[in-house]
C-alpha cells in the first residue's frame, strides 16, 4: 500500500469512528454554587483585575481539571478556577465538539495532571514508607493535598507568590464556611510565600520546616518554561545538588524550542533534550515521555491523526512538520532521580 493510500485510509477511519474521550460537561455552562458566594466573587474579581498572565495560568490549569472531571477528581478545581476561566474553557470544548476536533481543549492539562499524579504516587512508594517531603514549586491552584491519598504520610510544601497563596487560602476558607465537605489528604500542608526567581527562595523553604536530608519529591508542573534560562537552570541545579544528600525525585515538564518560540509566546526556558540535560546536572536516572506515549495517554488520545500522535511518529530532531509546515511543538514529561552512594547515605530516620 502506498503512503498516500495509507494516509487516506487513516483519515477515513478517523472520521467514521469517534475515538475521542470527550469531557463530561453540560451543554450550557452552569455556575457552581460556591462561585455565587459574595466573598468568592470578590476574590476572583481581584484575580482578573490584578494578576498577571503567570498567576492567572494557575486558574486556567484548575479550569482544565474541573471540566475534565470524568478523569480527575479535584474537589476544589471549580472554586480555584473561577467563572471566567471555566466559561472560557467550556466554550472552547463545545466548539471542539461541534467541529469534531482531533484534539479537545484542555486534554493536555488532563494528561499532564494524571501523569504527575501517577508519578508522585510511584515516587512515594519507592521510598518504602520512609519520611518524605513533597515540594510543589509554583504550586498555583494545585489541590493535590486535598485529593491524593498517597500524600497521607508526606509533608507537602506549596511554594508560590504571596498573593497567590493568600488568595488560595481564602478560597479554601470560603469552601469550608459554606459547609462543603473538605478533608486534607496530605499529612501536613505548609505554604511558602516566595518567588522562586529570587535567590533566597530555598532559604525561605528551609525556614518553613523543609529538611534537606529527608527524601523529597520535587514537583515542577507548568512552571519551568515561564522562567528565564538562568532562573530555570539555578532551580534545576539546586535540586540536583540534593541528590548527594538524600533520595531525590524531580518531576517536571519541559517545552522544546518550537513551543517556546511561537509568535507572542510568554515562555522563555526550553530544552529539546532534557533527558541529556538532567544527567549532566547530577541526576542518575531519567525517563522522558511525550503526550500520547503509553504512560502519558490515559485513554484520552486514541485518534491516530491528532497532533500528539502525529508528533510521536517524527524524530525529536524535527523542528517543522513535513506534512503541513507547522512547528513541532512538544511537551516533555520527565522523571529524574538520584541518591547518594550507599556508604555515604544519611540515614533517613528523622521523626516528624
TrEMBL record:
Keywords noted in UniProt: Methyltransferase, Transferase
A Pfam family matched in the record: LCM
Protein family per UniProt: Belongs to the UPF0677 family.
Name of the featured protein: S-adenosyl-L-methionine-dependent methyltransferase
Amino acid at each position: 500500500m502506498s503512503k498516500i493510500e495509507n494516509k487516506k485510509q487513516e483519515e477515513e477511519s478517523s472520521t467514521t469512528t469517534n475515538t475521542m474521550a470527550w469531557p463530561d460537561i453540560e451543554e450550557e455552562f452552569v455556575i457552581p454554587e460556591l462561585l455565587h458566594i459574595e466573598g468568592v466573587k470578590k476574590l476572583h474579581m481581584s484575580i482578573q483585575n490584578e494578576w498577571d498572565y503567570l498567576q492567572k495560568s494557575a486558574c486556567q490549569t484548575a479550569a482544565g481539571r474541573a471540566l475534565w472531571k470524568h478523569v480527575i477528581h479535584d474537589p476544589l478545581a471549580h472554586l480555584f478556577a473561577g467563572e471566567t476561566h471555566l466559561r472560557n474553557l467550556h466554550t472552547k470544548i463545545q466548539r471542539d465538539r461541534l467541529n469534531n476536533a482531533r484534539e479537545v481543549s484542555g486534554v493536555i492539562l488532563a494528561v499532564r495532571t494524571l501523569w504527575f499524579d501517577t508519578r508522585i504516587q510511584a515516587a512515594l512508594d519507592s521510598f518504602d514508607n520512609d519520611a518524605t517531603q513533597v515540594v510543589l514549586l509554583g504550586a498555583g491552584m494545585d489541590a493535590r493535598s486535598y485529593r491524593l491519598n498517597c500524600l497521607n504520610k508526606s509533608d507537602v510544601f506549596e511554594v508560590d507568590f504571596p498573593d497567590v497563596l493568600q488568595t488560595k487560602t481564602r478560597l479554601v476558607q470560603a469552601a469550608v464556611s459554606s459547609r462543603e465537605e473538605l478533608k486534607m489528604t496530605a499529612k501536613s500542608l505548609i505554604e511558602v510565600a516566595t518567588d522562586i526567581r529570587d535567590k533566597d527562595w530555598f532559604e525561605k523553604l528551609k525556614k518553613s520546616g523543609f529538611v534537606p536530608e529527608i527524601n523529597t519529591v520535587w514537583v515542577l508542573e507548568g512552571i519551568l518554561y515561564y522562567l528565564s534560562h538562568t532562573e530555570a537552570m539555578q532551580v534545576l541545579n539546586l535540586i540536583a545538588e540534593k541528590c548527594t544528600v538524600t533520595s531525590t525525585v524531580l518531576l517536571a515538564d519541559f517545552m522544546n524550542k518550537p513551543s517556546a518560540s511561537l509568535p507572542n509566546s510568554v515562555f522563555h526556558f526550553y530544552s529539546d533534550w532534557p533527558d541529556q540535560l538532567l544527567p549532566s546536572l547530577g541526576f542518575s536516572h531519567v525517563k522522558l515521555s511525550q503526550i500520547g506515549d503509553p504512560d502519558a495517554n490515559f485513554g484520552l488520545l486514541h485518534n491516530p491523526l491528532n497532533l500528539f500522535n502525529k508528533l510521536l511518529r517524527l524524530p525529536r530532531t524535527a523542528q517543522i512538520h513535513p506534512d503541513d509546515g507547522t512547528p513541532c511543538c512538544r511537551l516533555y514529561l520527565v522523571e529524574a532521580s538520584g541518591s547518594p552512594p550507599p556508604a555515604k547515605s544519611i540515614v533517613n530516620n528523622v521523626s516528624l
